[in-house]
Design a protein that fits this description.
Blueprint (H helix, E strand, L loop, with lengths): L21 H10 L14 E2 L11 H8 L9 H14 L3 E5 L2 H12 L5 E4 L4 H9 L3 E4 L20 H11 L7 E4 L12 H14 L3 E4 L3 H11 L8 H10 L3 E5 L10 E5 L2 H14 L10 H14 L2 H20 L12 E5 H4 L9 H13 L1 E2 L1 E3 L1 H4 L15 E5 L7 H16 L7 E5 L5 H4 L1 E4 L2
Parallel strand pairs: 1-10, 3-4, 5-6, 6-7
Antiparallel strand pairs: 2-8, 7-8, 9-12, 11-12, 13-14
The structure holds pyridoxal-5'-phosphate.
């Protein structure tokens, strides 16, 4: 049997969640219009809605909060964060931002001209928004296999170099302001990129003088996969791997809410002096002084400490393997999931889970609601409801992937919590024939998944 590492932490502070009865859960989800986004957090026993900003901080991070230096300029905590980012990521310059999208806004505004193209290994919602808001067209250059939930590959987040070359030939290098390379790829299920692929992308870009910026939100999880799966990295530390990864980039945007092990924070980093000067000018207008960028001193201290903790092998091994444990239990029971299991969550394939429902009967929304009713576990629909409607035809976009996402907060839950989720999902799978589909009873015009309400069909 595979060995799963024990929790590398002792619990010092506890939060007591409400454990509602089944009747209470049925009432709560009905009240929420069968939309898990509309549930009260207090009504969820286990909350797998997102891994963003839901991390548990360590005693050292909390201690760091007490030495917050809230000076308007030149805070010592900023100097600590800046030095930490330089040491762990290897960049020459760092600009703090309130969270990842603040960094995306600055980077996209400074580098993109209207009518250009930004290629990336699948998109992320806010990243793509800022690229398109500045007049660029996003082009997906991830390998084809990433779009197929069944194909099990070690580095399913890789960039397809042929697609990148084809785009260069089609639009010309002068129309590509930069390439966005995400480690790991969130929407593909937390799939990593190999070091070889990063090196090859760098080589191709060097030939054309193209810039590569990483979305480094989950780079420690990516580094762990490289250590475990790629030849030549087994004996390297996570810190060494992370440094090598970023040596192939020109800069990066970071959401500290994920691998930074904090609840809020972010940064933009780069090597180019001129870009740094312009980013510093812009951060003042949108985020705050270049010595806090929307974070308080105590937040920056916790973030600096979080980065150092995130490269500890025992931490990152448990982090990724705890998720593999949940995924492996489901796979062993025959439950359809996206393969391989990624670095931050498990994605159920709702179409195969509820094959008697058409996509218009909202299988992923239905499954997320039933998982909550069964167990008090909150998850998220990522399928036709999140896909929205076509602005021109008014028809639903029907995405290929119809998934329920279980994203696991860092250092918050134990294997016993994974068992509760797995048992509930397996039980639902055994009784799947009895599950009826849902339909909209209220459909907001934009980003409908947040506020939509549903009821059972017929
Ligand atoms: C969360 C996320 C972002 C945006 O970061 P925020 O801190 O939420 O603004 C960007 N890219 C990826 C891949 C993310 O998961």
């Amino acid at each position: 049997m595979k060995h799963y590492p024990a929790e590398p932490y002792r619990i010092k502070v506890v939060e007591t969640p409400n454990m509602l009865s089944k009747e209470e859960r049925y009432a709560a989800i009905k009240e929420a219009g069968y939309n898990t986004f509309l549930l009260k957090s207090e009504d969820c026993y286990i909350d797998f809605l997102t891994d963003s900003g839901t991390n548990a901080m360590s005693d050292r991070q909390w201690a760091g909060m007490m030495i917050g230096d809230e000076a308007y300029a030149g805070s010592r905590n900023w100097l600590h964060l800046e030095a930490t980012v330089k040491e762990y990521f290897g960049f020459k310059h760092v600009v703090p931002t309130h969270q990842g999208r603040g960094a995306e806004n600055i980077l996209s505004t400074l580098l993109i001209k209207p009518g250009t193209y930004v290629p990336g290994n699948m998109y992320f919602t806010t990243t793509r928004y800022h690229q398109e808001a500045n007049g660029a067209t996003f082009r997906d250059i991830i390998i084809d296999e990433a779009h197929n939930p069944e194909i099990d590959l070690p580095f399913k987040g890789n960039i397809d170099l042929n697609k990148l070359q084809a785009l260069i030939d089609e639009v010309g290098v002068e129309n590509i302001p930069y390439i966005c390379l995400a480690v790991t790829v969130n929407l593909a299920g937390g799939q990593p990129v190999s070091m070889k692929n990063m090196r090859d992308v760098r080589k191709l870009c060097d030939r054309y003088g193209l810039k590569v910026f990483y979305d480094c939100t989950r780079c420690m999880e990516n580094a762990y996969f490289i250590k475990m799966r790629e030849d030549g990295y087994a004996d390297k530390t996570i810190k060494e791997i992370v440094l090598e990864m970023f040596s192939y980039s020109d800069g990066a945007t970071m959401s500290g809410k994920k691998d930074g092990l904090v609840n809020m924070g972010g940064f933009l980093a780069m090597n180019d002096d001129e870009l740094y000067t312009r980013a510093r000018e812009m951060v003042v207008v949108f985020e705050g002084m270049p010595s806090y960028g929307g974070m308080s001193g105590r937040d920056m201290e916790a973030f600096a400490i979080g980065i150092k903790e995130s490269v500890q092998f025992e931490y990152i091994q448990h982090r990724v393997e705890q998720i593999a444990y949940l995924g492996d239990r489901l796979i062993a029971a025959g439950v359809p999931v996206i393969k391989p299991i990624g670095g931050h969550g498990v994605f159920l394939d709702a179409r195969l889970f509820l094959p008697h429902l058409t996509q218009e009967q909202l299988p992923a929304q239905t499954l997320a609601a039933h998982l909550y009713m069964e167990s008090g576990v909150r998850s998220m629909e990522r399928g036709i409801v999140s896909g929205g409607r076509c602005k021109i035809t008014g028809k639903n976009h029907a995405p290929k992937l119809e998934t329920v996402r279980l994203t696991i907060p860092r250092r918050v839950y134990t294997y016993a919590h994974m068992d509760i989720a797995a048992d509930a999902i397996i039980s639902l799978y055994k009784n799947r024939d009895s599950i009826r589909g849902l339909k909209f009873v209220y459909e907001p015009p934009m980003l409908r998944f947040f506020n939509a309400r549903f009821d059972y069909c017929d």
